[in-house]
Write a structure and sequence with these properties.
Helix content: 40-55%
Number of strands: 4
Shape: globular
CATH superfamily of the largest domain: Nucleotidyltransferases  domain 2
Number of helices: 10
Order of helices and strands: HEHEHEHHEHHHHH
Number of domains: 2
Distance between the termini: 49 Å
Low-confidence stretches: none
CATH architecture of the largest domain: Up-down Bundle
């Protein structure tokens, strides 16, 4: 069976491990799962150790990792080092939807001393049984916040770039809140079409829900894509774009609230 992970990203993670010597190093995210974009995806590396690094130490580690990516890939590749103390890691492993649990399940795990490694070293009696609803609440707040920003931008006749960026973020966080309400895991993506497809599969009542404006129009405002040449029409070129976007986001938010029994 072929490995799905990006072998060069694993080289970067191994260099970080050799240099920083944490108890546990994990290559996680899309370059570990194998669903990465060769040119755009970040390299995500989690480092678990007894204490947090100093701000200077963390910054130096990131700079060194960036040099590693240039050496290994022959170009700049975004790299993010995520630090966790052992206490934080064990605590968050109890949540089935935490980034720590997903990293363990989907990532490439590299202990400092393989001979002494046991998964139980990084667990507690509640590992994998609870659901962290704070993530749902945070997603919902962000959806509401970005919708409010979007409507203000509409009132102020702001440039299309600002309108689209806020609309995309409102939809993304709303759809992810709805998936959190169902307890359904999802990839760390900004693609509205993919997230909407996940929602339709997870929620019978949303099975026929469709956006009046194509999902790809919104998706092109996400992350670095917003600075690329557009392949889709501008959001503001659609008639009634503001009302259609507002109605879609509010429908998604209200459905998420209904699932959680919130007013």
């Amino acid at each position: 069976m072929m490995n799905r992970y990006d072998a060069r990203a694993l080289q970067v993670a191994r260099r970080v491990r050799e240099r920083e010597r944490p108890e546990l190093t994990i290559l996680f995210g899309s370059r570990a799962r194998g669903d990465y974009d060769e040119l755009k995806s970040d390299i995500d590396v989690m480092l678990v150790q007894a204490e947090e690094p100093t701000a200077g130490g963390a910054a130096a580690a990131t700079r060194a990792a960036e040099r590693d990516t240039t050496d290994i890939y022959g170009r700049d590749v975004p790299v993010e080092l995520v630090w966790r103390t052992l206490k934080e890691f064990r605590h968050n492993r109890r949540y089935i939807n935490s980034i720590e649990t997903q990293a363990i399940k989907q990532g490439v795990v590299m202990p400092r001393d393989p001979s002494e490694h046991s998964p139980s070293n990084y667990e507690d009696e509640n590992t994998g049984y609870d659901y962290d609803w704070s993530i749902y609440s945070q997603r919902l707040r962000h959806a509401e916040m970005y919708l409010e920003h979007f409507l203000k931008e509409v009132e102020q006749n702001s440039p299309d770039l600002f309108l689209g960026r806020d609309a995309q973020a409102a939809l993304e966080h709303g759809l992810k809140a709805l998936l959190e309400a169902h307890g359904v895991p999802y990839r760390r993506v900004h693609n509205i079409g993919e997230l909407l497809g996940n929602v339709r599969r997870a929620d019978q009542e949303m099975g026929d829900f469709a956006l009046a404006i194509p999902p790809d129009v919104y998706s092109e405002y996400a992350g670095d894509l917003v600075y690329s040449r557009r392949r889709q029409p501008e959001l503001s070129s659609y008639p009634d774009y503001a009302e259609l976007t507002r109605a879609a986001v509010e429908h998604i938010i209200n459905r998420a609230r209904d699932l959680r029994g919130q007013e």
